[in-house]
Amino acid sequence: MGVLEQYLSLRSEIESIRPDNPSTIIAVSKFQPKEKVVQAISAGCLHFGENRVQEGWDKFADLGTAGVDFILHHIGPLQSGTLRKYAGLYSYAHGVGSVATLEELRKRLEKDRWKMGIFLQANLTEETSKSGFSRSQLLEFLQDRSSFSSEFCRIEGLMTMGPSSGEEGMTRNVFHELNEIRRDYFPEAKLSMGMSGDYRIAVSEGSDYVRIGSAIFGERA
C-alpha cells in the first residue's frame, strides 16, 4: 500500500480501538522524502513529527509559505544549539526531559516570542539509553508545576516510550502508569505514547497522540 492507503488504514484501526475519543496520529516523517509528506497531507494528515529540527525546516518551510495546513512536532531530544530554530515553524516539543532543559527552552521562546506546547518526557522504564524525568522527579515537578508559568512555553502534556525490549506486558504497564500519573497529578494533560510497534497498546491505554513512522511511510531507505 502507498502512503495514502497506509494512513487511512491506520486511522481506521485507531478509531476502531477507541471510537469515542481516538488518538491523534503524528506522522513521523524523519528521513522521509518530502514527496511522502505531501502524500500524507493529501490523505488528511495534519500532525507531523521530526527528530531533527533542521530537517523539519527543509521539508515544511515552503509548505507553510504556500499556505498548506500542518502542525509540526519536534519529537527528538532537545539540543541547546537548535532551540533558536523552533520559532516560525514548530508548534510542539515532546522531548523535554529535565527542569534545566525546560528553563532553557522557556528563555529561548520568550526571547523569540514564539509559543509552543511542551510535553515532559518521562523515563518510566529507567533505561539508561533513554532520557527524561524519573518517576520521582516528574511527580515532584508536577506537584509544584504552578510555579512554572510562561505565555510562550506552555506545559500541555506528558510523553513516554515503552521498553526497548518491546515486551507487551511491560509496555502496557508503562503506558498505564503514565495515564495514572496524569489522572492523579495533571488531569488536563495530553499524553504522547506509542510508536509503530506499540501504538495499539498506547491507544487502549488512553494516549492522546501516537507517533507513527514506518506504519505510514514504510521503512526508511
UniProtKB/TrEMBL annotation:
Its cofactor is pyridoxal 5'-phosphate. InterPro entries: Ala_racemase_N, PLP-binding_barrel, PyrdxlP_homeostasis. The modification N6-(pyridoxal phosphate)lysine is found at K30. SUPFAM superfamilies: PLP-binding barrel (SSF51419). Keywords: Pyridoxal phosphate. It comes from the Bacteria. Residues 25-220 form the Alanine racemase N-terminal domain. GO terms for molecular function: pyridoxal phosphate binding. Belongs to the pyridoxal phosphate-binding protein YggS/PROSC family. This is Pyridoxal phosphate enzyme, YggS family. The lineage of its organism: Bacteria, Pseudomonadati, Spirochaetota, Spirochaetia, Leptospirales.
